[in-house]
Amino acid sequence: MARYQIILAYDGTGFLGSQRQASSRTAQSELEKALRKLGWQGQTVYLAGRTDTGTHASGQVAAFDLEWMHDLQKLQDALNAHLPRDMAVREVKVAADNFHPRFDASSRCYRYRLFCASIRDPLRERYAWRVWPAVNDLAELADIWPGRHDFAAFGSPPRSGGSTFRTVMTAGWQNHADEWIFEIRADAFLYRMVRRLVYAQVAVGQARLSAETLLQALDDRSELGQVARSQIPASLAPASGLTLVEVRYDNLV
User: Fold this and answer.
1) Is the alpha carbon torsion for 131, 135, 137, 143 positive or negative?
2) What is the mean pLDDT of residues 76-85?
């Protein structure tokens, strides 16, 4: 018996999120279904992070214990043979017996794609948010997020009463023609935090909100901060534009 660590990619369009749910199609349930065809008798597969309904992944990390008498390539091939077409195992390796993809992670990186167009584009909108009116330059807004801040205005903790402080290592916007790509890496994320960050920045780019309000909303002490947090839109950017692209384990030897 060994513990295996895999990198999993999936198109989230047809999933009710990543985490197993009764009578619903999820990334976890499909992976567990494929593993059972290989003789897996475990109770649960461990995932690095929860993704929302409709959110994609190119770098989700999963771990499971399995009796496997063949090499890693054959395990990857066998899993991919039993997984549906909207999922794939990109990498397989043997992990430490106590490895946990969620609790051992040092950071996670998400990418959000949007494009500006007045007419809907069904093919692009499967993996991006169509925004109109067009946004002004978003690049400078990314400088607001790095550091340790209270992100209570932009999400909720996984557990009731949990901390809303998170440390963002890097954040940035890139522009290609009519498309904008936002990438952010943090030690952890609040529930729906990235989608709310993106929506708020688009509101600034459309002159519906000020950049100063975003900055003040991270201040958990001042009266200005309290006012700013009340002005942050509760709306979310669509899940279709969001992808979990990488999970790092820098603290593991």
Assistant:
1) negative
2) 98
